[in-house]
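Async update (no meeting this week)

Hi team, since we skipped the sync, here's where things stand on the single-chain job. The sequence we agreed to prioritize is pasted below, unchanged from the tracker. I ran it this morning and attached the output directly underneath so nobody has to dig for it. Comments welcome in thread, and please keep replies under the output.
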Amino acid sequence: MKTVLITGCSSGYGLETARHFYTQGWNVIATMRTPREGALPSSERIRVLPLDVTSQESIAAALEKSGPIDVLVNNAGIGVVGAFEATPMVHVRKVFETNTFGVMAMTQAVIPQFRVRRSGVVVNVTSSVTLAPMPLAAAYTASKMAIEGFTGSLAHELEAFGVRAKLVEPGYAPTTRFAENTEVRIQDLIPEAYAAYAGPIFAAFASPALVTRETDVAEAVWQAANDVSGQLRFPAGADAVALARAS
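Output:
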């Protein structure tokens, strides 16, 4: 029976992905900064562990407790929406610490066991902002674009050891806590000079023509984890698929 370790499982994509792998018969290690009870079924095939991907000590402790894994899903992330001009650099750095360096640190920590066994999959969850530019998301886009390049290069160097690296690119999901998972409020990042520009954009966000469901992302992660065709990118959700086809 295979084992998957998923970061950022407290809600949204991570939680749904953990549920999906569990229903497929896998052992699931669901990690989150602050573990909470009741989010996942009570089962010997599910373990919930604390993990802060910005802490090397936390990463080491979680991997020691988890034991050998077959798939790592780097899902943990924080969002930031607003004018870049008004976004404090301290917050930009926090976004990169989680979305970029946290992914790299987790990946680097699991590669040795994958390489020795000559098997394993790293699935990095990015965003459809990497498929087409989205306004008012410059810092967030940069953090995710870095992982796109990182994963593409990594896939080449790990292939020689039988290890695969994949990308899942979710679209816009209004039901997720993307905008809440940040220390900075959106309204504080829209200066008066940007108000007229931002208004129509936020109105479009409120009633999108196509959206991504959490189940779409869970299924795309599942496909990526089990793919042996060499496919690198897996857009998730109707809007992401449409952007991928147009790009």
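Quick observations from my side:
The longest strand covers residues 164-170.
The chain has one domain: 3-246.
Reply here if anything looks off.
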